[in-house]
Amino acid sequence: MPTPLLRVRDLRTSFGSGDRRSEVVKGVSFDLNKGEVLGLIGESGSGKTVTGLSVLQLLPDNAHVEAAELTYNGRSLAEVGAKDMQRLRGADLAMIFQDPVGSFNPAKTIGWHIVKALGRHSVGPSGDLKPGDLKAVAAELLKQVNIREPERTMASYPHQLSGGMLQRVLIAMVFGLNPKLVIADEPTTNLDNLVERQILELIRSQQRQHDTGVLFVTHDLTVARHLCDRVAVMYSGRIVEIGPTERILERPAHPYTAGLLATARSLEKRDAALYEIKGEPGATSWAKRCAFSARCPQVTDRCTAAEPTERTVEAGHSVRCFNHAA
Amino acid sequence: MLHNAINAMPVGASPLIRIRDAVLEFKIGKAWGAKRDLRVLDEISLDVNEGEIIALLGESGSGKTTLGKAMLGLHPLTSGSIKVAPPKAAAPRRQDAHDLQMVFQDPLSSFNPRFTVGSSIALPLRLHLKLSEEAIVERLAELLGRVGLNAGFAHRYPHEMSGGQLQRAAIARALALSPRLIVADEAVSKLDVSVRAQILNLIKSLNRSEKIAFVFITHDLGVAQFLADRVAVMYFGRIVELGPVDQVMDSPRHPYTAMLMNARKGQAPVAEEAKRSAKGCNFANRCPRALGKCHDVRPEVTAFGDDHEFRCFNPV
Amino acid sequence: MAFALLRHAVMRSAGVMILALMGAAVVFFAMRAAPGDPALTALGEGASTETIAAFRARWNLDEPLIVQFGLWVANALRGDFGQSLSIASGTDVYTLLADRLPNTLFIGVYAIILAVLISLVAGTAAALNRGGIIDTVATSIAAAGISMPDFWIGYVLIYAFALGLGWFPAYGFISPVESLGGSLLSGFLPALAIAAPMAASFTRILRSALIDNAHRDHVRVARSLGHGPSFIFLHHVLRNALIPFVTVIGLQVRYLLGGTVVIERIFGINGVGSLMIDAAFGRDYPIIQACALTFLLIVLLVNIVVDLICTMLNPRMR
Amino acid sequence: MIPVLKRLAANKTALTGAIISVLVAFAVIFGPMISPYDGDAMDVMAMLAPPSLAHPFGTDTMGRDVLTRVLYGARLSLLISISGVGIAAVLGSMIGLFIAYRPGFVSNVLMKASDLLFSFPSFVLALFLMVVLGYGVFNVALAIALIYLPIFVRLARNLAQLIVMEPWVQAAKLFGQPTHSILLRELLPNAVSPLLVQATIGVAFGIVIEAGVSFLGLGVQPPAPSLGLVMSDGREYFNTAPWVLTMTGLAISIALLGLNLLGDGLRDLTDPKLKERLS
Amino acid sequence: MNPITFNRRQALSLVAAAATLPMSFRAQAQSTTSQSSASLLRAAITGYTVINTFDPAKVTQLPESYVVWAVFNALVKFNQKMEIVPDLAESYSFIDPTTLEFKLRKGVKFHDGSELTSDDVKFSLERVLDEKTASPNRAKLSSIKTIETPDAHTVRIITHAPFAPLLTYLANTRTGTQIVPRKAVERLGDKFDFHPVGTGAYVLKEWKTGSGVKLEAFPDYFDGAPAFQTVSMPLIGEESSGLTALQGGQIDLTSTAPFASIPNLVKDPKIKVYKQTGLNVRYIGLNGRKAPFDDPHFRRALAMAFDRQAMVRSVVFGEGSPATGLLPPAIAKPGQPVPPSLTFNPAAAKAELAKAKYPADTEIKLLIWGPTWWRKIGEFFVIQVNQVLGTKIQIEAGESNAVFSRLRSGDYQAAVWGWLGFIDADEYLGDLLGKDGSRNFHGYNNPTFEALLEKGRSEVDPVVRRDVYHEAELLMLEDMPLIPCFNSNVHNLSIPALKGFTQLPYSNYGDQFAKLQLG
Fold first, then answer.
1. DSSP letters of E224-246?
2. Does any domain span residue C145?
3. E strands, A105-186, where?
């Protein structure tokens, strides 16, 4: 197997200090290969967003990130200095955020944002760019994300554009920098159905065009179905199941994944009543128990006595559940 | 103050709410700047029948929430009418009590954070029913029970409850005065996936068992399909298609509905910004089937069968 | 954009004029309701009835109130605010104001500039050094600054920097018309006394606006794109923090101008403020009216300017 | 209430402010009782005595104990400021909430009137009102109330405009809750902490206004003790007895510092964006 | 990492840059500020800010007369020993008890270049007497019957009866007897108020309300050109501010000094203190036409209810003496005991109040004004009287002009007031309390008192005259139309370099500018 683009082993991220310290990511491990889209799926409190931010070191000062291994292209991100990390960001690692409106400085034009980002990394089709060319490159990038009037768009201020439009600009900007890895943090959650579909399509096509590795963070299984090569399902700070998308959608190994799928299926099948997972999600402890045990329909005594370890279902598909025969 | 645009209908009329040519315009612009009217509701005509669930389906800015609130009298209409059928039997409460209620999108802000959930639910009871304190406590427990919460939740403050629990409590509050209709505005979109199913099931069972009509506002086709008897698809203030849910979903006539259905199946629509049109069909600039006149002439409502209608010159 | 700004300015001015007219009405009618007959104040109780009648006719005091108000406004528009009744009997109020307004404006502008400079530096330093020594020192001084009434600061400054160190004149003010350097020097302490509480509050607002803006999403996005800290600070944080900063400056101008009143008195500056104090003691109604109105107009004008700056800073307001 | 106290204790600013404020309040309430001197009692033999154990702040030109005068003065100043700001807070908040809840002609007029008051420089308004109303304790309080009224109107309106859109207010409307009940039950409790914070800071500012007006001789009239009057005296004989001005100035500053810190701390605890909402 | 975490050095350099800012600009500004130069005298009028006119005939406010004496001259003036010596007159003599003849100096020029003639003198004095002029001093000169001008440099003043204070009145600025040029006055009309034309050493160059006066040396001054080309006279409302300005080097001379600072200033080598017993009186003026002061019992009760000795200590820091009557000690009959009605006597005061027809808690407002020590008179009075008698006197503060106009119009109950610069006993008793006295704001009218005043005016023998006024004063104190408090010392402060200043007990300095120099 070649070196993965991103290798994460036992990532733990906590906030605060002392008594008030709370762990949000509780030991997450995964690999992301070049040109691959990995869906990171989970509900609120599962730690999926924090996982993404931990990789890019974009968390606030009170956050504390530890990992047994956190490498980009074989290079340990933990050992990269602040200056180098700054250089890696944008050029190699980039991120698309959930709120397109907030992603732009309201006091600056769209064009300013793109030109400054391009100027920062001096990138473009020909490699080095003169400042004067940046505007043209920016316009070209906007065209690639199906923005019809790039000049007008560039002269606009963020509040003059819709969320979908802004997300498109952000995607153009991010992929225009040619990063190897993009973390997309619920980029479509705030968008309308049709726009969501367009944005997903856009990410997919840009990803293919640039052969970018994408970590796609979402709470929506159906979104993952159309976009991701593999999915990792998170629950309370850990990945409970990871594997190829089709495999997991067809034969989920974890009761939680199965429950989510059952609900989605019963919606599609127009059942009289929907399949329900009882209880509410949230950060629950994994100490000497399975965090999902309280909601699990298949719970056994073992689930509340010890922490389930990761088991391989088949090559590339593993699950954290006692009930699954190894 | 409420229902100033809503007149009582003659007794015996079948729909619960009858909306005719409802137009709602907001004035926008600064105090001294150029004002312009933004048409949020544009010639809406719709009946909501007793005991049915009707889904208002649409994207943000389509006017679905405004329409829901207008039904409740929270927004006065610019023109047109919304009429509410008078209650069939004299209900055991004061005359001005409102039997149209609402459940909101954000469960946390549905309750005044300074008071316990119980006291917020009890407020309409105290306001409109002359009940003893014991009776109120009893009624509170009963209401909470109906939405699957135990009576202990009455003493909790909103921030001490989870989203799902709060949404149940919000439904309990809406039920307090035995309403005939509840407008549920994106009532599950802020909830976690695994909790959504619980609330949707609850709403459906309340509708089936207690014959409470729901106007369910959503942008999620799946939810609409599961819950609704009928669906009204809205686009920039207009209802572009209205009909029984299966019929609309399985064989949409309006290109917009069709596009929504396709998107759900994974087919990306044409990338074009949604735009409001001054004269023609609002959807014309995104519509793959648009004709010349679509840009200039506003399509009128076309009936298709008894209960299916749409606004399109060139339907699918 | 220039046109839009101009139109915006015109629209704002129209609103301000209505407010100014309302203000004039309030000032006028309140003054009429105040105890004491202007005629008697001016002429004394012993004055003959003919003298009083002549005085009343001269100042339109025998017209109905609303007519008096109209005439007063009409005269005021022509710069005629009447004549002083007691403290400088017979002098045109306009002359008094024209003499003193430049001094007040000079000190006011001087104070604003000082306050803005101090707070820009202190606020930025504090935010950059959040939680550090500079931050603690700056915020503590700011808290102390807000807690000192300006007249008290005035004395501290006089005793420390004028009488103690001898760096600045202790009393009196050289008008900018006479000598700009002299006015800058003699105006420094009074301007600083007025500026100190303002600077303190500006510092705190700038500090918190900087910190607040540093946590905005677009800052995180900029970081994710690899922009460096100085770029982000300049273009994303400071740039955006200027909007609340300028807004607050606009709001605080009323306190600042209030401060000039007492400070003018303490430092012996012949400004509109000290004129108003003298007039208040002397119950010199025409002067009080004119001073109050002048101050109102200054605040309204400053508000227009602040509003325009905000509009330029914040594209969303255009 | 307990969690609030706990958070208060954790916030150094608020805690310092609270401690100073409590000490000042204690001194002002009980000080005059404990003090062996009468605020008015003259002792011409002991005039302008420097600070000593018997007279920690020294004595003034009439041989009155300056500390006792300051305590009485602070009591009066506080009373004036609190009543002024109190009136402004209650009235202003109600007007502000109403404006936010019921936009329309009446609200527009109220808002314009409030804006007008807000456009007068604070001290100019105070001076103007002192002339119109006449000098004296009650009128100073009234002037402070009028100066502070528009601030509360604006703040309450801005706060309520955010709350009015909240679903729970809409729900209340749907249940036919009467306007006064919506203002008092749904809006006020959720706007009250910023308003209280503003009131705390307002009391500090009210003291400044009172002291300033009285300092000029247009406010509280002698022989009633007022911080401004004591300072005005102290200024006159600063060369001979610098302690009168210095001690009184320091006393004022400490009291204001306490209130300001408390206000700031409370603001941080309740609403870090309060300042912006004022605009 | 926080994007706004800069390193400490960057933050420090910002702070340092800010700190040096005011200093760097100060260096720039200083080069442009002019320091006090030898040709400029800065003589501040402290404690007052109001000037209503510079017309000698109309002057009432103290600051006005400071300027008037620099711009005008009278026929005679006081020398340093308070003796009357010729000024515009070369000599004078009584031709008979009712005729006073002046020989005028020749070649005296007015500021407008015209020459002084006897006609100008006649015009000036008749102008004061003219009712249309509304001079506050008309009554003082009412004894004048006619003024004759036998030639251009001779003036004869003929009185109805022998008039004792005539020379004094002709010398004192506060009588408005300075000589003005007829032509200029007639030409300027009302404008003369602020465009005075005199014979004085200085010409008024500029006047700004509330701000001050600028004088320019008059090169043709008959007594020789003055040393200072320019005199600026800023008006400084507070005496302590005047001191601050003097200490800060912004002025050279003050017209008054804060009493509280005198003990310290005397020891200060950087300040020169001039001090003298003053010709003045501070009193509580009562309005005898209004309740409760239309009741003499009430008035007497108040007069005995406070300790004047303590008031002097407290209010003027011992720089004065308790009043023994209305007349300052310098002109009163010496060696007289303090009358009981001016002695602090709580028991007698209460007994007197008991006889009054008004209750103790009658509402009384006492007007106060001016610099702190003036206010303190009122404050001290109110505190002690209220304590002793249980009265409810309240204080109302005003500005001097406003209080004065209320006094004049009778719109008051009680007011702290006083006069400085009155030199003749008739000015005190006659002007303040005589029924035609132009400063009788008290409604006092006692025929016996009037008769005594009349007698005093025409009595030429100074000793007899003094006894007459003593008798009148004792009579007045029985009625107590006003409550005398104390007489205060007068002070001037200057920088030590100022030479040639002589302080006079009426504390005027306008006529001294010509003699001053910096050495």
1. ---S-SEEEEEEES-HHHHHHHH
2. yes
3. 181-185
**Same domain? C132 vs C210:** yes
CA gap E53, E63 in Å, rounded: 10
Q: Examine the domain organization and report whether C128 and C7 are in the same domain.
A: no
Answer whether C255 sits within 8 Å of D212, measured CB to CB.
no
Alpha carbon distance E216, D257 (integer Å): 51
Stretch (H or E) spanning E17: helix E8-30
What is the Cα–Cα distance from C198 to A206, expressed in whole angstroms? Answer: 52
Cα E383 to Cα E397: distance, rounded to the nearest angstrom: 15
Q: Ramachandran region of residue E390, left (φ > 0), alpha (ψ -120 to 50) or beta?
A: left
Same domain flag for C188 and C307: yes
Q: In the complex, which subunits touch B with 3 or more CB pairs below 8 angstroms?
A: A, C, D
E6 in contact with C at a CB cutoff of 8 Å? yes
Torsion angles phi and psi, residue B50, rounded to 5 = -55, 130
Distance CA E465, CA E333 (A): 10
- State the DSSP H helix or E strand holding residue E475, giving kind and residue range, or none if neither: helix E462-479
- Asked whether A12 and A27 are in contact (CB, 8 A), the reply is yes
ipTM: 0.81
CA angle D74, D79, D85 (to 5 degrees): 120
Token reading at B110: 């549905």
Please report how the helices D242-270 and D188-215 are oriented relative to each other, as an axis angle in degrees rounded to 10: 170
What is the predicted pLDDT for the residue at C177?
79
pTM here is 0.83
| Long-range CB contacts for residues D266-270, cutoff 8 Å, separation at least 24 | D266/D8, D266/D14, D266/D193, D266/D196, D266/D197, D266/D200, D267/D194, D267/D197, D268/D11, D268/D13, D268/D14, D269/D4, D269/D7, D269/D8, D269/D11, D269/D14, D270/D193, D270/D194, D270/D197
In-domain check, residue C198? yes
Comparing CA positions, the residue from C250, C230, C238 lying closest to residue C206 is C238
D103 touches chain B (CB under 8 A): no
Test A94 with C236 for CB contact under 8 angstroms: no
Question: Euclidean distance between the first and final Cα of chain C, in Å?
Answer: 8
**Looking at CA atoms only, how far is residue B199 from chain A in angstroms?**
9
Task: Name the CA dihedral angle for D177, D181, D187, D190, rounded to a multiple of 10 degrees.
Answer: -110
**Residue C227, domain CATH:** 1.10.3720.10
Distance (Å, rounded) from C-alpha A221 to C-alpha A39?
A: 9
What SS3 class is residue E120?
helix
Residue C69 lies in a domain: no
DSSP helix/strand/coil, E417 = strand
| Count of domains observed in chain C | 2
Pair of tokens at residue E484: 């005398």
Residue of C nearest to D114 (CA): C19
Is residue C29 located within the same domain as residue C141?
Answer: no
How many angstroms away from the CA of D6 is the closest CA of chain B? 18
Its sign, for the CA torsion E366, E372, E373, E374, is: negative
The partner residues of C228 in beta bridges, in order of sequence, read none
* Tens digit of each residue's pLDDT (9 = 90 or more) over D243-252: 888 888 888 8
CA separation for the pair E375, E271 (Å, rounded): 26
Measured CA to CA, the distance from residue A259 to residue A279 in angstroms comes to 12
Sign of CA dihedral B248, B249, B252, B258: positive
What does the pLDDT look like over E127-175, one tens digit per residue? Answer: 998 888 888 888 788 889 999 999 999 999 999 988 888 888 888 867 7
Question: pLDDT band at residue B32, thresholds of 50, 70 and 90?
Answer: very low
Instruction: Give the residue numbers spanning the domain of C146.
Output: 98-317
- Tens digits of residue pLDDT in C63-93: 788 888 888 888 888 878 887 777 776 778 8
Amino acid letter, B147: V
Does residue C107 fall inside a structural domain?
Answer: yes
Residue C28 tokens read as 């006028």
Nearest residue of C to residue A55, measured between CA atoms: C224
